[in-house]
Amino acid sequence: MNIYDIAKLAGVSIATVSRVVNDSPKVSEKAKEKVRRVMEENHYTPNVFARGLGLGSMKAVGIICPDVADTYMARAVSYLEKNLQGYGYDCILYCSGYDAEDKQQAVERILKKQIDALLLVGSDYADESADYYACIKEVSGQLPVVLINGYLEEEHIYCVLADDFQAVYDVTDELLFAGKERILFLTDSDSYSARRKLEGYRAAFKEHGVEINEKWILQTEQGIYATRDMLLRQRNLHFDGVIAVNDSLAVGALKYMHARDIKVPGEINVVGYNNSELSISCEPELTSVDTRPEVLCKTAIDSVMALLSGKSMKQKQMVKCHLVKRSTTDF
Predict the structure, then answer these.
(1) Is residue 48 pLDDT above 70, yes or no?
(2) What percent of the chain has pLDDT over 70?
(3) What gap in Å lies between CA 195 and CA 206, rounded to an integer?
(4) pLDDT for 236-273, tens place per residue?
(5) CATH number at residue 186
(6) What is d(CA 300, CA 58) in angstroms, rounded to the nearest whole number?
(7) Fewer Cβ in 10 A, N or C end of the chain?
(8) Is the pLDDT of residue 220 over 70?
(9) What is the mean pLDDT of the chain?
(10) Are both 148 and 84 inside the same structural domain?
(11) Which domain holds residue 139?
(12) Residues 105, 199: one domain?
């Protein structure tokens, strides 16, 4: 039983329940009595965080991300903070790392800070089998929870994500149309986002009727040189295109090609992901998919504020990606 259930049973909005919890004068005594009766009948004890627009709001939103040393995460946190300031809210940031136990501890710690909403940044949190998922699910019944660039099929966890499937499908489709049929797919994780990218890659091959050699799908360690060295160790792997799940892996592929004196894009086309500063810091400059994190983050913050105001929101919002063509492709 959570605040959403109480609102439904009482026939009122979530905001009204939140105001009753906080004994706001903006709610009539009749409505208060009705909500309190439903709460009592269902043995519902309001969580300290179930404030919404209540009088106890601290005007603070919690943000959890794996690591702000990651360029994408740093950009996202910056956009989130800027948008929160526009609404007069502060943020409290925790970096959880990638270990499941550490993620759960981060969620538990940040909730002690009396936040009004919780933002999770990155598809690494989109794991329904993880222990911390139960904690996030429970929290979502008490305050707005928004997941950025990941998806959880849970009614009260709101997800704002880039359309990774379509972005990679489109890139693969263009490469195949240009006659590139031996395309490497480089990944360094098994996150929700990485899986959607791989699904887009496979779907494009299927649409073109071209069989995929599973050897073209390569899992590597994170980092530029790890990717370069992994490719250098490969034997009898002939390819004419590369799609990487992030720019770091794509730059690693470029370093491999430089070491092997392979012409880019003459012999091999390379596409990165995230359109980070790495994409313009290498030579040749990297074609990369822009996931538009500024739009993702603004959408997430607007959604949080709407939910705090008692408005209903779509559980899943998709943001279209954009391919920025530079010097590593000729399609």
Answers:
(1) no
(2) 95
(3) 16
(4) 899 999 999 999 999 999 999 999 999 999 999 999 99
(5) 3.40.50.2300
(6) 19
(7) N
(8) yes
(9) 91
(10) yes
(11) 60-162+293-319
(12) no
pLDDT digits (tens, 9 = 90+) for 297-329: 999 999 999 998 888 899 999 999 999 999 999
pLDDT of residue 23: 73
329 within a domain of the structure (yes/no): no
Place of tokens 């295109």: 241
Summarised one tens digit per residue, pLDDT across range 83-106 is 999 999 999 999 999 998 999 899
How far is 85 from 298, CA to CA, in rounded Å? Answer: 12
Q: What's the chain look like in SS3?
A: CCHHHHHHHHCCCHHHHHHHHCCCCCCCHHHHHHHHHHHHHCCCCCCCCCCCCCCCCCCEEEEEECCCCCHHHHHHHHHHHHHHHHCCCEEEEEECCCCHHHHHHHHHHHHCCCCCEEEEECHHHCCCCCHHHHHHHHHHCCCCEEEECCCCCCCCEEEEEECHHHHHHHHHHHHHHCCCCCEEEEECCCCHHHHHHHHHHHHHHHHHCCCCCHHHEEECCCCHHHHHHHHHHCCCCCCCEEEECCHHHHHHHHHHHHHCCCCCCCCCEEEEECCCCHHHHCCCCCEEEECCHHHHHHHHHHHHHHHHCCCCCCCEEEECCEEECCCCCCC
Residue type, 130: A
CATH of the domain at 14: 1.10.260.40
Asked, for residue 327, whether it belongs to a domain, the answer is no
- Tell me the CA end-to-end span of the chain in Å, nearest whole number: 54
Q: Are 188 and 225 in contact (CB under 8 A)?
A: no
Q: Which of 103, 153, 111 is nearest to 128 (CA)?
A: 153
Q: Is the pLDDT of residue 54 over 80?
A: no
